[in-house]
Fold each of these.
Amino acid sequence: MKIRSEYHKILFSANGRVMEINSRDYNRLYEALGGADNGIRREIRTLKTDIDEQMVRKIKNAAEESMTLLPNPRDSLRFPLHMNFELTSKCPLRCPQCYCSLENGKELDFERAREVLRDGAENGLWEVNLSGGETMLYPRLYNLIEECSKLGVSSNIAISGYGVDKTVLNRLIEAGTNAIFISLNGSTEEINSHTRDGYSYALNALALLCKADFPKTTVNFVAHNTNCDDFPNMVSLCEEYGVSRLVVMAAKPTSKYELNTVPSAEQTARLAENIQKARSRVKVSIGVENCYSPLRAYLGKSFLRGNNNSGIWRGCSAGRYMMSLDVDGNFTPCRHLLFVERFKTIGEYWHHSEVLNKIRNIEDSPGQPCGGCELGRYCLSCLAVNYKIEGKLEKRNKHCPVAEFTRAAG
């Protein structure tokens, strides 16, 4: 299923309004907005149409209205753009780095999932990430993807590659899957096995996706001290399999709340250099997830423009434009911050959660090394790291290698 990338549909999260726009007019709109990354680029979907100058002005006005931040609590959109649905805690693999509790083998109630999805669609939710456990083990996966398609909500799935064959892939595409994320932490089985299981499953899935010419294949690469220097080889592997995007992700605490594989300062500096080189020479889009905010802030430095890693998009997205639905049907700030709260609707949770309120105000009193870091104002590191390791929900990441080598450079 081909996607026409020359056309866009902009979805405004605050009021659910949709404006259709082609690439020519989109670029004109972007210039009219001063070229600032105010979230418009992050609210793009594909659709064929055309617009005129009057429509550009209408979109600009709608954008300015929609992207207004909540006055209190602060640093948030009026309604989340993104949600993660934890579909199952079942998984046949046993990855050394896994942050999930796989002992109970639960599944998200389909009716609860559909209820939350419809609530989101009616209020401006743009995208859901469907995850596990092993996402492919969820018995009503195709039904849920089809429901997303009917409601106009983009669905992405994160998989290991387990259970994927040509028939399964075709069903995923026909159901309306927007993007497929394959988890792979190394270009060889030996490197991958330090932190992940299922190397052969991942390569098989990538080969099938390449043969199907699927346009939105993404590889999730979690950076550890065992694979950081393998990044250039990962880029080559992605080129070989026709991957559209390679996302570098931050290592997070395991299900036992351990974090022993964070890259060193020297490894992180080399990784940053290799990312910059790859971005300038390869067709594969190289991204760094928002959770890896220290690395994003380091890469975002510019002598002329200042740091472009700014605004609510600069780091941890929990409670700012994203939230999660856990396998028991409860809301949490994100997949890794396991503060469970039961609200009937997304809006009630988004505006009345005490945990989200604390998260939105967490930068008032940053701990070290964040408080003294030169990149502190451009960074909001993964809050789950300090919470799970230190037992405190605050802006502080003692495991941050970027703080170490920025101090050394200074």
Amino acid sequence: MSTANPGSLDLKPIVRENTRLLERWRGIFRSFSAFERRGIYLLVLINSVSIFGYGTFGLHPEWVAVWSWVPRVFAVAYPLFAQLQILVAFAIFVAAVYRHTRWDWISLFVATFVLSLLSEWTGTTYGIPFGKYEYTHLLGPKILDKVPYLIPISWFFMGFASYGMVVRIQGRRFNSALFRVVFGSLLLLTWDLTLDPAMSFLTPFWLWENPGFFYGMPALNLVGWFVTGLVILGAFELLGGQEKVKRLPADFSFVFYMANLMLPLGMVVVAGLGWALVVTCLVLICYYGLFRYFDQRS
């Protein structure tokens, strides 16, 4: 005879679901190479140190003067960790795509570099398509004294990751190039919803000539990011990007995207920029919902 209380909560389904999710997460990393796993861990470590440094000294600049050695270290670490984060992410990404596609990724890289550089140069020069802004010295050497070399590189690996996330959730019954390009561009734009507040409102990595409504970001920037994303991911489609993305481990794009999102997301959380966090989470929840929907249909 059962002694269970009829009104008590049955925790077994919850435990089973959590166990299944934990096993799935472990399975994701088993499909990565040792270099890819260690690279993701290193990226998370760099992001963690950067978030801690910003939350400690960025939000409390008066603490910098407490110890004599801190100003010297902070002056070097401030730009170094931002540049290092992009370089480490690029190295991890190139190693992963080379392992699975050899040199087939080069056409996507060249297309992204040229298109994003053109977009960034017209933005910094004429204010189209993002609005008028300028990069400070904090991201290193610039192309034509306008766009840091690291910027087109970051467009590439985050554009690829955003595109790969959409390819990942499409099942065998649904294969739409338009969906991949549009929703991938939305995911790329979502990254900027925390990146721009973190790097131009909280810190001066770039400066807007006419600050806008979203933590200093003008509305035109949202349009510019989405349109630039459409152009870049449209080029991915024309260059056979879907087939190349499918050669990577199924969840690599998602893990890589989240590892890079961690830095600006952590900074806006520490600084209390609630709307940037809310809007980003809403898009990611939408992505998860579509993932579950397509997963059940396939």
